[in-house]
Amino acid sequence: MSRAMESIPAPVELQQGKNYAEPKRQHPFIRSLKKHWELYLLVLPPVLYLLIFKYIPMVGVQIAFKDFSVVKGIWGSPWVGLKHFEAFFESPNFWLLIKNTIGISFYSLLAGFPIPILLALALNEIRTGYFKKTVQMVTYAPHFISTVVMVSIIILMLSPHVGVVDKLFTFLGFPMTNFMGIPEYFKSIYVWSGVWQGMGYSSIIYIAALAGVDPSLYEAAKMDGASRLRKIWHIDLPTLVPVTVIMLILSLGSIMGVGFEKIYLMQNPLNTSASEVISTYVYKVGLIGANFSFSSAVGLFNSVINLILLVIVNGISRKVSQNSLW
Fold first, then answer.
1. What is the sign, positive or negative, of the torsion defined by CA atoms of 268, 270, 271, 274?
2. What is the mean pLDDT of the chain?
3. Which of 15, 205, 263, 285 is the least buried, fewest Cβ under 10 Å from its Cβ?
């Protein structure tokens, strides 16, 4: 055997004394990039979008710490430290803005968060396909109405003399009321019109979660004699917990970010004391008043508070329910 092996000639390269080096090891990221290049290509557009439209504009945040001058530009304007933040904290509007912003946000959260869940649970129990589709279409449709049209509908319905609501109240014997001119009514009008507009569309994610429930669980519950409420309590609600926690974290993370457009359109001089929030104040001071540095400081303060709330709520959720964004 050994003689047979000795008789096998060596490769030509070895006979010529060529030196073979070990193959060069690639970085794990390069190997992953070559292996899964389709996935990286797929994620590239949203990453570029975030970089171009979200992160690069953050360079302009520095004007919150400067006395911005249009002539000198962002880089040439002098630094003033926390001057604009201190001016905002000492402003007589500070506590009014905080109160209105947090009040409207929490009211919207308390009223608008559970209703899509209840709607999803109710739709999940409907067995008639035609009726279920009709209810879904009716509840989804308001979401696609533009904010301008929605506010126009609200104002027309609540207007004195010509509004449907005012005519109904007058018919029932109540005095004529200018609902949009009474500050105490503003938050309820804003919140409940938003609930009506968004509950159907917001319920989609919960309906999708309920669609993933194993049908054998319902069959087992039926065999055990469970009622519909028992099925909802022991099967549907536990299924919705992870999605609900994530949605709640996202909602609490933007608790200071009340939408600007709808509130601004619903504002009038009579209800400003209840409708002025940080976003509308930033618009009026920054763009209308041309005080760009001060409005940037107010907007940055609002964003930092939202970020802190998001991190805190996410941490609490991770410890309590093992569900979190990261």
1. positive
2. 84
3. 15
Name residue, tokens 């930092």.
304
Whole-prediction pTM: 0.78
Q: Would you state the structure tokens that stand for residue 291, as one six-digit string?
A: 């005080």
- The tens digit of pLDDT for each residue in 123-154 reads 888 877 788 888 888 999 999 989 899 999 99
Integer Cα distance of 235 and 304 in angstroms = 39
Instruction: Look at residue 60 and tell me whether its pLDDT is greater than 80.
Output: yes
